[in-house]
Amino acid sequence: MRIRLDRTICDGFGSCAKKAPGYFSLDDWGYASLIGDGTVSDQDRDAVMRALMDCPVHAIMDRDERRPDDLPPPPNIDEDPAAHLKTEANEAEWGFTR
């Protein structure tokens, strides 16, 4: 498991440093910093997941998790988008009547 901390989102609640002190520290103002490169060992996974789930502003992310906005858009198979336009010539095909 690999995690990432977005310090621009962090509001300094400090729950991450309480749950997983080996992976998060707090600066002088109480904002979280990631200790190390974000690689989480198997024995610490539960504590880090608890820190991730308890973060009220969701500043901690699992880098291995896929999110819908991370996926590339589907390829455009249709070469000519005008080929499927509804026109008078094909209105019977689309079920339109005047």
UniProtKB/TrEMBL annotation:
Name this protein carries in UniProt: Ferredoxin
Any one Pfam family match given in the protein's UniProt record, by short name: Fer4_15
One Gene Ontology molecular-function label: 3 iron, 4 sulfur cluster binding
Region annotation Disordered: where it falls in the sequence: 62-98
Cofactor requirement: [3Fe-4S] cluster
Keywords: 3Fe-4S, Electron transport, Iron, Iron-sulfur, Metal-binding, Transport
Source species of the chain: Mycobacterium decipiens
Record has Electron transport as a keyword: yes
Transmembrane regions: none
